Amino acid sequence: MEKPLLKTNCPNFSSGPCAKRPGWSAYALENALLGRSHRSKEGKARLQEVSDRMKKVLKLPEDYRIGVVAGSDTGAVELAMWTLLGPRPVDIFGWESFGKGWITDAVKFLKLPSVNEYKADYGKLPDLNKANFANDVIFTFNGTTSGVKVPNLDWIPANREGLTICDATSAVFAMEIDFTKLDVVTFSWQKVLGGEAAHGVIILSPRAVKRMEENELKTSWPVPKIFRLAAEGKLKPGELEYNTVNTPSMLCVEDAIDALKWAETVRGLSGLIWRSNANLEAFEEWVAKSDWIDFLAESKEIRSNTSVCFKIKADWFQKLSDEEKTKAAKKITSLLDKEGVAYDINSYGKAPAGLRVWCGATVETSDIKKLIPWLDWAYETVAKEYSKEAVK
Ligand SMILES: Cc1ncc(COP(=O)(O)O)c(C=O)c1O
Question: Does the CB atom of residue 244 touch ligand 1 within 6 A?
Answer without folding.
Answer: no
